[in-house]
Amino acid sequence: MIVGLGNPGREYDNTRHNIGWAALNALARRYSITFDETQFKAIFAKATIRGKKVLLVKPQTYMNLSGQAVQPLAGFYRVDPSRLLVVYDDMDVDFGSLRLRAKGSAGGQKGMKDIINRLGTQEIDRLRLGIDRPPGRMPARAWVLRKFEGDDKIDADNLADRAADAIETWLVSGIEIAMSSHNNTTIEDPRVGVVLPKPKPEPKPDPSPEAIEE
User: Fold this and answer.
1) In the prediction, which pLDDT does 191 show?
2) d(CA 105, CA 120)
């Protein structure tokens, strides 16, 4: 089961908080997969990717209630947490970078926190997609709900495609190989066709992102 986190509704399309959905959409396009099933507060697709039977899931709760969809779906389809990958935005990762991790806390991401609490374990693989910290004094809530525009949109689309690559590696080879293959400090810039080094991040404050309330 691969779960992309986001908020339902057109007003949240193309926002930083919904980049987990964008990654699943990028993967689905490669295999002409349609999200055509609805159950347990989620829309999802059943598919076979690289010889693996998978569920691609987009919870239709708001972000901080994501576990309300993931827990019953995992139970109904008998998906052990060890066979679950959760994909979501993370302000603690530089924009354009991605980080796979095998286990651990939610790190302030309320959707992941709800999934951990409802499944009763931190032993869940996750793919964190960097959206960076808000500029200046912009509230975290306003930042995660801001839409990608201009060059940021190009970079976000590129990140979603690379996230789809990482998901495929996870499916075929597991978390350890996926981590060694995709956790890096560079981004590919599709506008110039080269690999650019990531700049060293400036020290930043550590506010917790505001989740969307239902």
Assistant:
1) 43
2) 12
Give the chain's end-to-end CA distance (angstroms, integer): 24
Classify 91 in phi/psi space as left (phi over 0), alpha (psi -120 to 50) or beta. Answer: alpha
Cα-based angle 32, 131, 33 (whole degrees, multiple of 5): 10
Report the distance separating Cα 37 and Cα 34, nearest Å.
Answer: 9
Of residues 75, 49, 69, the one with CA closest to residue 57: 69
Contact (CB, 8 A) for 98 and 182: yes
**What's the rounded Cα separation, in Å, for the pair 205 and 6?**
24
Q: What is the pLDDT of residues 100-118, one digit of tens each?
A: 999 899 988 999 999 999 9
- pLDDT, tens digit (0-9, with 9 covering 90-100), for 160-175: 999 999 999 999 999 9
Positions marked catalytic: 17
Whole-model pTM: value is: 0.85
Q: Helix (H, G, I), strand (E, B), or coil: what is residue 99?
A: strand
